[in-house]
Amino acid sequence: MNRGFASLHPAPCFLYYVSLVLLVMVIYHPLFLLLALCFQISLNIMQDGGKRLKESIKFYIFLGLLIVLINPFISHRGQTILFYFLDNPVTLEAIIYGIAMMMSLLTILISFVSYNMVITPDKFMFLFSSLLPKTVFVCMMAMRFVPVLKRRSQDIALVQKTRGTDTTTGSFTQRIKNGIQIMIILITWSLEEAIITSRSMRARGYGITKYRSSYFDYKMTKSDWAVLAVIIFSCGNLFYFWYQSIGHFQIYPKVSALTLDIRTGLFLVMSFIYLSIPIVIEGAEKLRWL
Amino acid sequence: MALIYIQNLNFTYPNNKQRALKNVNFFVEEGEFVVLCGPSGCGKTTLMSQLKREIRPEGDISGNIYYRGEPINHMPKKQAVEEIGMVFQDPENQIVLDTVLHELAFSMENMGYDIKIMKKRIAEMSNFFGLEKMLHKPVNELSGGEKQILNLASVLLLQPKVLLLDEPTSQLDPIGAKRFLQMVHRLNRELSMTIIMSEHRLEDVFPLADKVIFMQKGEVKHMGNPRSISYKILMSGDAAQHNYLPSVVRMYSYLKKDIEQAEIPIDVREAKTVICNLIDKDEKQYSENSDICSKFSEKPVISLKDVCFRYDKNSPNILDKLSLDIYPGEFLTILGGNGAGKSTLLQIIAGLKKPQRGKVYFKGREMSRIKEGERYSKIGYLAQNPMLYFIYETVEDELYKRAEMLKTRVDDVEKLLMEYMDLFNLEPLLKRHPYDLSGGEKQRLAMATVLLSKPEVLLLDEPTKGLDPTFKINFQNMLDKLIKTGMTIIMVSHDIEFTAGNTYSCALLFNGEITSKDTSSNFFSENYFYTTSVNRTVREKLPKAIILEDVKKVCRKERHMPVKTASY
After folding, report:
1. Are strands B70-71 and B505-510 parallel, antiparallel or unpaired?
2. Same structural domain, A188 and A119
3. A157 domain-assigned
């Protein structure tokens, strides 16, 4: 998929996701978190109609609710005691903190769903291949081997089943034994086959030259630079605000009231700009095709 | 000046007394298509790896190899990698990286090429091979044939002058193999690329070759263009060597008394004119009983009724209301294209997979009601890759421990073990590690261990894949012996020439069902493409002749009964 946000150079996209995760972890302002959560959900819906999100959203919500429910019962910090549960105080602060944690966690989880659509392994490799060329190369080899090993182990299990080496029946210890047997075949066989792979690598000149070049190629266009500038500007500002405690929402020891002064207003405007970047890009693309 | 000149080359592997290559002498001109053939272990691969410096094995070497007049060792490293490319036998394990694009770029990245050059070459190569649509696909979604084309393309991106191909089509189905050979042929003709290829299946490469080198036990036995090497082999009088020749050549040599070198046909087109003149008999009526059921009056041993199978909820049916009866003592081959579900069908018959709908019966009992242990011992299943079977360090352990396990179920397992050790000639291999055996030896060992449980039905998945003609003939004899003991054999195969000669009946799996099941001779004689080259050659005169033996039978009859011929 190379549309909308995903069509940008991977560097601004990667920076955006990394900064987003950091920001939602440090900023507790409820409006910021709510906005972040809503925009990430909309982004997912704009990107693939929410198909991938649907697969995992139930689990995410369950996780989020778990935090909201559990936090007040294990954390007793805060001054505003609402009631006692089994002689333990349940505080308003702990409830609010739980909700904030839930929103921040959900935002992170949901942003990962869209991250996976935008930063494909290819783009990830591109970003790090100049930094960690060997690691990236090993990653790429590993990614090839995962499905290969999976298929091989299925083949072995099927054949070994005919000889009574079965991991689905028998006592627990017997099953473990049989599983190890299958692992042993898998490993010896794979090592054997790896010799062929290494021959093929040498035959194609792996390790001949000092520096391997890299085929990954993404060029920064003008619009990529522009987006990058906006991201750096807005998230830089947000970090500065956070550092200066502007738009700071105090939970412990006593929850503070939400106030709106000029500085908080500026913080909220900057938050809006920052959080809406991918939505605006996706939306602009959608408008073009209306 | 020859491009490659090999002078008195000898090579011995470490800890080995016998030389793997003995006094090898030959030269290769620029733009030549050279085919190396000979039995497995004759030194083809060793010879090729001598030409590819990066993978040359350790060992004692004497003699010289010249590349463009210079000793090959003096070549700069980078040039050696670029100018001499190699594609190996196994399509799967040569691939290093995860997606097609990464794999294509791999060799160029190793050379440190500039990104502009890489892009240009990949663009060009994708066009030539039609890879555009799969560039971003993960490699494990490709078929075997596509993988091998990818390997070829990745090597070609370095723009080699010489291409070494080590049995590149032996693991592919006939269609994938033909496509690969066509590509190689194009490279040879259009770019004048020098090609050195080793191959068992000469039927397809013979017409393409400029020079054929026949090797045996590390020595070059014969060398020449296809016609002259055919002549030399036919004249040599060694019957074992004849098996390596394409069947049209063998047919010609049988029918013609004094062989003329210039007349030897190397493909079906040539054979048709030459051979049809030699058969002066029209044997349209030559036929055997055609009704398949008439031979088997008993109840079927395996019976499938409306079997449906698919891998996921959402994937299409691989098998779709498939019904099939197999009778005791029958030798059935199931043919079909790649991914038609042949292996899946075999696994269902073996009781390893359960169909979603339909029933499988073994001797009238429903498969799923039979206990697993009994099921697997009554129906022996030999998977495509014999490596899956080996657990122990030696061949001996593999056999004896298996026999030990089966003691309670099979009474005379020791006797059986001796019998099969004899039949499959495993005695000399007992102390070896199963992984060190050759492909054919592995196959024999795996089969022996499967047979120890005394199965009534034996299922074979592509047993002749990648094996040489000598092994195939031995294998055929072994199967004949098993059939004589009353065993039922069901085989899945791509190997038309082997199937045609050996099996009693054939079935075609297409679109999830068995479209036709018939005796081999009926099955093949009605097909147009899916038939042997012998049949394609003589079908006008002898429509029922499928293999050389059929032609021999008719023509022998003719020789014995001169009167009848005269009446024509």
Report:
1. unpaired
2. no
3. yes
CB-CB neighbors (< 8 A) of B347 in chain A: 158
Q: Which of B102, B376, B402 sits opposite A140 (nearest CB)?
A: B102
Question: What is the torsion angle, in degrees rounded to the nearest 10, for the CA atoms of residue B395, residue B397, residue B403 and residue B405?
Answer: -140
Please give the Cα distance from B343 to B345 (Å, whole number). 5
Same-domain status, A193 and A224? no
Q: A184 to chain B, minimum CA–CA distance in Å? A: 8
Amino acid at B390: F
Q: Which of residues 216-235 of A touch B (CB under 8 A)?
A: 217
Q: What is the pLDDT of residue B564?
A: 36
Determine contact, residues B345/B289, Cβ cutoff 8 Å.
no
Residue type at A107 in one-letter notation = T
Write the DSSP string, B10-71: EEE-TT-SS-SEEEEEEEE-TT-EEEEE-STTSSHHHHHHHHSGGGPPSSEEEEEEEETTEE
What value of ipTM does the predicted structure carry? 0.85
Q: Is residue B399 predicted with pLDDT exceeding 80?
A: yes
Query: Which residues, numbered 135 to 194 in chain A, qualify as contacts with chain B under a Cβ-Cβ cut-off of 8 Å?
Result: 140-141, 143-144, 147-148, 151, 155-156, 158-164, 166, 169, 181, 184-185, 188-189, 192-194
Q: Do A215 and B105 touch (CB under 8 A)?
A: yes
CB atoms within 10 A of CB B360: 22
Q: Which two tokens stand for residue B236?
A: 């040599």
The confidence band for B557, taking pLDDT boundaries of 50, 70 and 90, is low
Check if the beta carbon of residue B264 is closer than 8 Å to that of residue B249. yes
Q: Which domain, by its residues, includes A26?
A: 4-127+219-288
What does the pLDDT read at residue B558? Answer: 52
- Interface mutation target, options B75, B83, B98, chain A, most CBs of A under 10 Å: B98
**Which residue of A204, A209, A213 to mutate against B (max B Cβ within 10 Å)?**
A204
- The answer to whether B383 contacts A169, with C-beta atoms less than 8 Å apart, is no
Closest Cβ–Cβ partner in B95, B107, B388 for A144: B95
Total count of domains within chain A: 2
pLDDT in the model for residue B159: 94
pLDDT at B438: 84
Same domain for A177 and A66: no
A16 and A157 housed in the same domain:
no
- Domain contains A223: yes
Nearest to B466 by CA among B501, B490, B494, B492: B494
Summarised one tens digit per residue, pLDDT across range B48-86 is 999 999 999 999 999 999 999 999 999 999 999 999 999
Q: Are residue A123 and residue A139 in the same domain, yes or no?
A: no
Q: Is residue A214 part of a domain?
A: no
- Is residue A246 located within the same domain as residue A145? no
Are residues A9 and A93 both part of a single domain?
yes
Tell me if B129 sits within 8 A of B149, measured CB to CB: yes
> Are A208 and B92 in contact (CB < 8 Å)?
no
In terms of average pLDDT, the best of A213-222, B2-11, B437-446 is B2-11
Q: What is the pLDDT of residues A93-118, one digit of tens each?
A: 999 999 999 999 999 999 999 999 89
Contact at CB, B109 and A215, closer than 8 angstroms: yes
Q: What radius of gyration do chain A's Cα atoms show? A: 26
Average pLDDT over residues A187-214: 88
Residue A208 lies in a domain: no
The first and second tokens of residue A247, run together, are 């738009």
CA A33, CA A61: separation in Å to the nearest integer?
16
Boundary residue ending a domain (A153, A170, A203): A203
Residues A75 and A152 placed together within one structural domain of the fold = no
Residues 6+ positions from B553 with CB-CB distance below 8 Å: none
